[in-house]
Each structure stands twice: as structure tokens, then as C-alpha cells.
Amino acid sequence: MLPTKEQLIEYLSQKMTNQDIANIYGITFQKVIQLIKKYKLDPNELRQINKYTVYLHLLNGQVVYVGSGVWYRCRRHTNRRNSEHKQLMQDGKIEYKFVGEFDREEDARNYEKKLIKRYKELGQAHFNKI
């Protein structure tokens, strides 16, 4: 089953990668690209790649990490310093959630710091260093 145009638009605007969409539908990454071209969608425009995001990594509903950066950074495991965090991401056990979107990187970083402090006080965000 292939995603509809509306589903593709929704997924892309939620900042999902093409690989994420392919995994949901059990199709190839290349097929997602073909569908994007077929429907004449501009994924970069839908993903608002010029924005800075703040995101949470969740494990069993608990926040284990707060991060910020460009939209696709939340799914990258290759740049993780903590080996346990990296392994959980590679195994697909980490869920992510976008919680903020900013025009300026400084604003995103400030919000990230605020959230780290809040979640640390709750005994969470143990992959973040202060």
C-alpha cells in the first residue's frame, strides 16, 4: 500500500525522513522519492529546513534526551557521544518528538537549555550533560 498525496504532505511536514516514510509503508526509499516527484511536492519547503528545532528523545514514555538543531538531527545516531543512547537509537527503541521550531539557532539553544534543566529536575534527560 502506498501513501496518498495527503499522507506524504503530512509526514513531510512532521519532518519525517523519506526512509521513515518508507519504513511505515514497507516500501523502498526510492519509491518515496518517486511519489514525491509524481505529486510534485517540495519536501524541503514542507519540512521548513531553514528552521531550528528542539526535540525530545523518549524511551518508554520518559524523556532521555533533549536536543536542538536542524530538523533531521533528531534521528541521527552517528553523532551521539553516549554509546547506550547511540545503541538505543540504532535498535529503533528511541521515539522522538518535536517541541519547538525557531528561526534563530540561539533561540532554539536557549529553549533546549531550559528544557534540559526542567527534565533533569524531574530525574529524566540522563543522556544530557549539563
Overview of this protein structure:
The chain is of the alpha+beta class and 130 residues long. The protein has six helices and three strands, in the order H-H-H-H-E-E-H-E-H. Helices cover 44% and strands 18% of the residues. Strands 2-1-3 form a three-stranded antiparallel β-sheet. Strand 1 and strand 2 form a beta hairpin. The radius of gyration is 16 Å and the shape is globular. The N and C termini lie far apart (45 Å). The model has no long low-confidence stretch (mean pLDDT 90).
Summarize the structure.
The chain has 130 residues and is an alpha+beta fold. It has six helices and three strands; from the N terminus they run H-H-H-H-E-E-H-E-H.
Instruction: Tell me the span between the first and last alpha carbons.
Output: 45 Å
Structural class by SSE content: alpha+beta
Number of strands: 3
Mind describing the biggest β-sheet? Answer: 3 strands, antiparallel
- Identify the overall geometry: globular
Cα-atom Rg, whole angstroms? 16 Å
How many alpha or pi helices? 6
Question: In sequence order, what are the helices and strands, one letter per element?
Answer: HHHHEEHEH
| Percent of residues in beta strands | 15-25%
Uncertain parts: none
Overall mean pLDDT: 90
Helicity range:
40-55%
Strand order of the largest sheet: 2-1-3
